[in-house]
Every structure is written in structure tokens, then in C-alpha cells.
């Protein structure tokens, strides 16, 4: 019986083997593209096996496989294709080109299109391109992703505002920020901060909710938003549900935050040495300087090193960021939904700074009929920010680096040292211990739409949008602050801005014959924005623990304000396409704004664009080198109305005289104030090489802004200093290049590389009012906006240690007098650099190898300058008692010394003028982001009902290469705001945070 069993088993195994062998087939065939051209080098592999082959020069292949096996065909630049083996042993495989962005949907304003159909310059960021990369904010998504877009964070505060510039700066006095449109709603983008330190107006948006971001860069793309398209339009589209089973996504991460850079300041011994010498050089006796050291040290033994305070270490801190995001999506053929909620707690790198953000989003789309649909979208967020004073405040933590290292930060009992003789400035730790500064921001954005089918060619769309930005700030300064003398001081302020948008338009599409496509859009919109604000102040609080205003003995001030403005707009757009070769788009918008003079409230904003898809011509149909080629040209006019609500009006305010109340003029108005308009030309080419293995875009643009809106100075005899007028002209011109390549693409390894290059040159081409100077910046015809206007530093006189300046008077032949002087009043200021980069570059790489993914972003800027206003105090030759940077140890001391640091002189100016001594190049290359992830094999995770489990590490701002010796080449003074003449000035401005984040993504 046992023998029979063994024999039967052997026969069974043999039969199985014969069966398997019998099923193994020799598969042959060819692989071509959709034009019939062979694709040599195509990879063919048997899925879930080690078997593989490649096509030869004629596209021919041979491979062994079993019936039922799956053959995977992959070739760089083409979509992978899978074929199941049957009894057929000869295959003819046609690969489809992977056109990526060419067929991707782009948002063009009141509609959509595909990349290959548009004739304008639009940059796009897709969720799938960035889903594996961790970004802390919406604007940080932009950095290094799109040509022609510069993103700079003002400082390292967690709530810090951003500068986003699309194709340079096109205005002076009006807003320089682009228009943000979230799911069809133009967003409120005004700062409501009570301490002149801008808060990021998009801080309440959750980056995980973003589906796509489209940048309308040229006028033909942005003109459909006419009134506010001068600075570009950024269209943010959030994720939505799809017709699928319910899907839950969980993203959670924890990060560690550090400062990207710390500067080197003098320690106590170096400080004593420098200031003892400075006192001697200025005739101050040793007894006097030692007495001052005694005051600074608050009686501690500075001679024996009893005190050596590192104020920078006290100002900076290491912190933790926690992020949790949960989303659910799905739907049927009748309705689709997307819901998400998130919590983010970000610790700042500056003591006393941090935020908590809560968001809740819901989005529903319903198919009313087979061809009509409606939807609703709402986003709720609350952000609570622990704030600190702005850069220009003595109580700002980073300004404490100017405190003497001889000064103890704390008394023996642990309270802040606020002795007025010991501290040079108010000790910020006093505010930390007995103060509170909290801002709460509630943001609601919502829109509801209906897309109604009328006939096969015509649809009617109606949208209603709403945006509410409510900000409440409470600030209390107690017994250890600068307000101790009044018993403490408290402020409460609220500002509530609401925007309502009604939009209705018709969409028409038709085809004439088989070659001619026509589409058109016609509609109008009405927008109203209201703002209400209140503030109250009080003083004399009985205790530092009682910080609300109902505990103030005296209410010292208060007030409220209400205002509103509106836009009324009509727009039309038509698009013509013939044979997928020739396309033309025409658009026009008429905008009316209540902000302008009664005779100039409306403006026309036309645009036109055309494209020729050369690669669809017969003479290129068989090209193996040039797989796609499109030539584009566009022209258009856009406007700017972001100047405040009453700039065209004569305004009056309350005044008092001899205890009598009256009214007096407070603003000169210009009833002829009109739209600032920008005319832009764009010429571009889109191309793909080697079956789109390499793709690229090249654009040249020229933007001219006429009737610039800004405050023009007027004679003081008028009783005013300035008036808002349309004066002057500005030009931006540049070139943008984007190159992308899919270096490797197969089932195991995929590697994409993208390089971006932007050059922009800004020039004030007409300024009839003459030079306008504001601090170290100047508006001058023929120069860049906000150019630096400074004395030119000439180094140090090696004989006596005097600081020298070039005289720079104009000689008879027009040249500059390059003689030097030690008297700055004998020198002349000249234009030396500007705060805007001439070149921007970035390199983005993403790799996927089996279950691993790796990505990085390198970003660089060249040609900009930055002025260190604080350097006049902290690198100022010991003129004041501020602590100094270590470079002051290289000062001139003896005749014959060769150095750029003048002799140290206490209480005497020797090189501290606004000169190029404190102007530096802001060039840098930054490793912006690095991400390494690992996804668990789905065959394993699916056993636990999980579709995807990915662990990742992400690093932000890991390395910055720059010659700038300040904190950061992009960090500028937050109190300068985002517009106007002043720009590019640093003043104790904090660097961005360096973050290391560990997280997990789960889908089920």
C-alpha cells in the first residue's frame, strides 16, 4: 500500500511538471509607437518572476512565458502596458506616449482646459507630484516648483508672512501679491496684525487638502480676472471625491525644529577688551568704563567672569511640530464626497512663538441629471498664535542679541532682570514671564455651484462664494515689561472681513465638421467686501495674573471702524481650434471698482493668445527626435486696484482745538485716480524630445505697467506729505526655462529630474515726479524698483583707522570722483544694487526604487542684495554698548593695519552711516527639501485591510550655501510690510526653521 502511494504521488508530480512544461510558450513580436516606428530597448518582463527581455533595433523581441502570465512592457516616455499570455505566440504591441502634463487638466478661470490646448503661460503643481513631500504651509508648496514665481518668507516666525512675486514686481504703492482664488472664491489677502508684523493670510489652509495649484502668469491667462491680474493669479483647487468605494487617508507626523543659523557675537571677555579699547580711543577714562561695566553686570564680578550671558541662546529654542490629517472620500455615480480634518501644532524657533491650527473641510458634488450637477464646498479653520513683538521692537527676542554679555538675564530668584542701568533694551524675558500676546484667526470659505445642462452645446453655471477672515488679538504687558510704570497695559482688537461673490456665466461648445472646435464663455460677477474693526486699551492691572481688560482700572482708549468696497465685472472668452494644430483664444473683461474716482471706476482688460502645434503637421509626423512642438504667443492687459478703499477721496477727521471738537482734512484725494494697468507680451515654445523622454518650456515675456499707483510726495506747504496718484511706468522682462526628463522608467525604478531657470529684469522706465527716497531705498527712472541708495564704503585709512567713503561727485566728463573722504557729509549716495534677484534656479528630483522613494528640491537665487540695518549697531565699532559681531575683533588698532573694520570709538561715529559697508549679496543655494520614504508591500499590508502604509523622513531647509553673514539671505524686516518703496532691509530678522520630520501615511 505504501509503495502504491509513493508511486501514485510520483506519477502525479511528473504529470504536473509535464503540464507546466507544456504550458510554457515562446512569445515573439514587435513593439512600436503609435506611428509604427520601432522602439528598440523596450523592457519586457514576466510579472512576479525574474524573466525578462529587450527589443532589438527593429523592435523585435523573444521571451519565454506560461499561459496566464502577465507581460509588462515599459519604455521611457511611454505608458507601461500589461498583456496577459494566451495561446497567441505572436504579439504586435503599440505603446502610447506618456504626455504627462500635455493632457492634464489645468484651471484657466471660469473653466478648465488641457495643457496641450492652451496658448498661454500657466504653471501647474499637482497633488500627485508633491504628495510624498512634507510642506508646512500653502506658500511653501510654491518654492522651486514653477518658473517665474519667487517665494520668500519674511522671517522665521511660525505665522510669518510671505512674499510671492509672479514675474517680478509690477507695482509700487498697490499690493504686489498675486490674486489667490480658492475653488472659485477670490480670497481675502490683507494682513490684520496689530503689531505691524504680517501674518500669513493663508495660514488657515491645510496643504494636505490641495489637489492642484495653477499659476496664471501671462496676461492672456490672467486677464479673465482683469481687475487683479497684474501680479498673476494663483488658483488653488482642493481635493474632491470620486466614484469609488469609501477611502480613508491618515497622515500623521512629528517634527523637530531648529534655527538654520546662529551668528557669532562677543563673549564677556571679548566685550570687555573691545569696549575698554573703544573708551580709551575716545578719551573715556578707565574708571568710567569700569563703572559702566559694573552697572551692566548688576554688581556681579565681571572681572573674574562671573557673568557671560549668551542672549542669542536665550532667544532661540528647539521645538516640536505635531501634525495629524484625516480624510475620507468616495461616492457613487450620483454623488461624490470628500471630507477632511486636521490638527497642527507648530513650535517656533523663537522663544514665546508657536501656533495651533484646526481645520475642517467638506466637499460634495451631486449629479442632478445625467448632464447637470451641483456642489457645495466649505472650509473652516481656527488658528491660535502665540506671538512676539515685531523686528523693530526693543522687546523682540532677537533684538536681545544686542544686549551686553555682562548683563545677567535673570535675577537670583529667577525673575527677568529689567534694571534700566543694567539692560541696554527692555529684557524680552520680562514679557515672557509677565505678558501675553495671543492672536486667534477664524477663517471660513465656502461656495455653492450649479452647472446646468441646457442643450448639447450650452451650459449655465451659477456660483456663490463666501470668505470670512476674523482676527482677534489680545496683548498684555505686566510688571516686568516696559509698561510697568503704568501698572501694566492691555490691548484687545478684532477685525472681521467678509467677502461675498456672485458669479453667473454660460459655457458654449460646438464642433464644425470634424476639424473645427469652438468654445465660449460669457458671464458676470459681483463682489462685495466689508470690514469691521474695534480696539480697546487699558492700564493699571492689580496683578500680572489678571490679564483681561475687565481687570484694568482705567480704559484709556478705544474705537471702531466699518468700511466696504465692491467690484462689478463682466467677462467673455472664446476659443477656436482647427485640426488640433491651430488655436486662438480671445478674452475681455470690464471691471468696475468703488475705489477709484467717479469718472474712472471702470476699466477694460482685453487679451489674445494663439498657438501652433507644429508636431501635428505631416512634415513632423515621423520625427523620432522631436515628439512634440508647440509655439505660443499672447498679449493682454491686466489691472490693479489694491490701494485701500478711499484713496481717491478727500478725507476729513475729528480734531480738537481749545477743547472744542471739529473736523480737519487728513487726506488729499484725486478724483481722477484710475486703474493701474499692465500690458504683457509673451512668446513661448513647448517641446518634447525622444518620445517625450525630455520635455520643456521656454518663455520670453515683457510686462509694462502704466499709471503706477503710489504715494507721490507733495510740498509740505500744502499741509500734507503725499497724495495717491497715477504716476510713472515700470517694465519687467525676462525669460523662463523648464526642462524635465524621465531618466529611468521601468517597473522597479523610476527617476524624474526637473530643472527651472528664471531671469527677470525690473526697470522704472518713467518717473516724472523725480527721485523718491525712503530710507536706504530709492525710486529712480532707469533703475530697478526700490534700488539701494547708499554711500559707498571705501574701507579704512591705514594711518589713523578712520572709515572712508568714496566722494562720488560727478566730474565734468560725467564720471564719478573716486577720491575718498573720512567725512560722510562730503560723500554722495549712489545706486548700488536692488533687493530683487535677477536669476532664480531650482533642481527637483524624484526617484522610486521598488518600495522606496526619494526626492529633493534645490533652490537658488542670484543678483539680489540685502541691507543689514542692525549692523550699524551690532557691527558698529563699539559706538554704542551693543554687543558686537566677532568680525569687530579684526578692527584697526595700529598705524599700518590693513582691515575693513575701522577703529573702535565709544560714542563716536566711525563708519556707521547708511553705506555699502552693510550691504551684501543675497545669493544663495538652498537644499529646500529632502524626503525619503518606504511603502510596505501592498500584498502584506492588505492582510490588515490597509491599501497603503508608508513611513517617511523629511527635512526642510537643511543646508544654505551663501556668503551672506546675517541670519538668512531671504529674511527681511517684517515691519516694512509687503509693498511700497522700502524693501530688502534686514533688522534682527529671524532665519527660517530647519525641520526634521518623521511621519506615516495610511490608506484604507
TrEMBL record:
- Keyword list, A-Z: Cell outer membrane, Membrane, Signal, TonB box, Transmembrane, Transmembrane beta strand, Transport
Out of the domains of life, which is the source? Answer: Bacteria
Signal peptide residues on this chain, from the entry's feature table: 1-22
Q: Name one Pfam family in it.
A: Plug
Q: Which NCBIfam families match?
A: OMP_RagA_SusC (TIGR04056), SusC_RagA_signa (TIGR04057)
Q: Which family does it belong to?
A: Belongs to the TonB-dependent receptor family.
Question: What's the name of the protein?
Answer: TonB-linked SusC/RagA family outer membrane protein
Tell me the organism.
Aquimarina brevivitae
